[in-house]
Protein: Cache domain-containing protein
Organism: Nocardioides aromaticivorans
Amino acid sequence: MGSMVIEGASGSASPAALACAREVEAYFHGVIEALDVVRSGLEDVCRRTPLLAADLVAAAHPLTRDLLAGLPLFGGGFVAAPGFLADHHLYLAWWQGEEQQLLAQSTVSGSGDPVDYSRVEWYRTPVETGRAHVTGPFVDYVCSDEYMLTTTVPVEVDGRIVGVVGADTLLDTFESLLLGAVREAGAAVVNQSFRVVLSADPRVPTGRLIAPEQRGALIPCGDLPLGVLVG
């Protein structure tokens, strides 16, 4: 994960702001650790040649079920690298929602064509960097029409990236977990583009881009592409 550039002096930040940053870091590192379990569990099946979607689903489903049972997540699973599977060029072994429905192949509205997820941040960044990544906030128009934070981890087998494992956190869930700490700090959680994830100020909504002249001190949330903005 690429760390954020610190603007201002975080050394003088309040204990509440520092604690808020650590809470954000702890939540997402918990998700990443759980995704590492899924990744490890899929390594053997990903070595099969040829690998069919049905075989991938059979291996990924119990691992994803445990992932979703253990954390307050909206969805998760494995997204195959284009061309990795023998019977599908693009495929999502991804379960989401209360009923944990399998997505399989999301299509572009009106066209029926599969969505080319290889260009989106939550897939492209971990594949290009070889590191875990948190994407968001963004509206998941393809699957849920909800504000989402998506954590993804690259899956490498025998020196080849074969896809990513990932998990979706609804922004509503993130707010329920972190709003108390954000309010205590009088701060905002922002991503690496200084787009607001969550703010203590109701006049600063999720998704707003903070202009350079409005930025105060930024406390990085560890090595995540997120930070706590104060002042």
